[in-house]
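User: quick one, fold this
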Amino acid sequence: MRKRRLTRDQITAILLIAPSLIAIGIFVYGFIIWSGYASLSKWDGIVPDFRWNGFRNYIRLFGTERFQIDLRNTIFFTIVFILACLVIGLFLAIVLDQRIKGENIFRSIFLFPMAISFIVTGVVWRWLLNPGNQATGALGINLLIHKLGFRGFNFGWYTNPSIWPGFTIGKLELFVPVGMFAIVLAAVWQMSGYTMALFLAGLRGVPDELREAARVDGASETEIYRYIILPMLQPITLSAVIILGHISMKIFDLVYAMTPGGGPAFVTDVPSLFMFKTVFQGNHYAQGAAIATIMLLMVSVLVVPYLINSVRTEVKV
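Assistant:
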């Protein structure tokens, strides 16, 4: 069978993308493999030590109370953050979809937080949610509430170490870490506008003829959104969940800006912050690589099924 030769355009295209493929192979997948190998080594100090240690780093890590707390905080943050962004983003998108006066201004206001980095957001919200102390008195939002006449209000925000309602399995308190609400609040403020933009694009893609046909059939606006528009937004909702979940599972800068030490009793600590302190302050490179590998697997749980479904959908089409 005669082999097909590459055309000049195909060779040019391959040469153009080859540097990017090589760079990705080395600096992304190569470093992922290297981190995975380091997590299985005895590297515990400045001097590299790649002697085989098996899965002992992972076993020790899952037995560490701080890492168990980090996983609890990450699960709580991910669930509340995604749900809040979806609900608020969809609500704002539906409001703007009504062609309200000044829509462009409101859309810009809602999207403005996306222009700010998580570091800036963390610093600002740390000021706003600073509960103050006996020396300074109430600060931030607590001070505003006091000015409104509620002198007894004194919420700790990110300094509140309590778990509500709280039950213990072993040494770990489970359920709602109250201090994480401050982190969720700041993150939702920044990302709900982005979710709004996704939903608004989907809403504007629904044909007006479809809505008119439903109105002719006697459907109310609520029924149109419930039975026609929202089901059509499922792909966008899935994409939003993947993006927001990816952000929440590897969140670092926002937490570090608001609570550099992870809060009292690590109530706002997350795996990325634990990894940062383990590697760059403790020089425990093998354990830090194990944390990074676990974070990669957590993100893969969301991303890989989405990619597989996307590929299957494209093949069917």
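User: anything notable?
Assistant: The CA atoms of residues 57 and 287 lie 6 Å apart.
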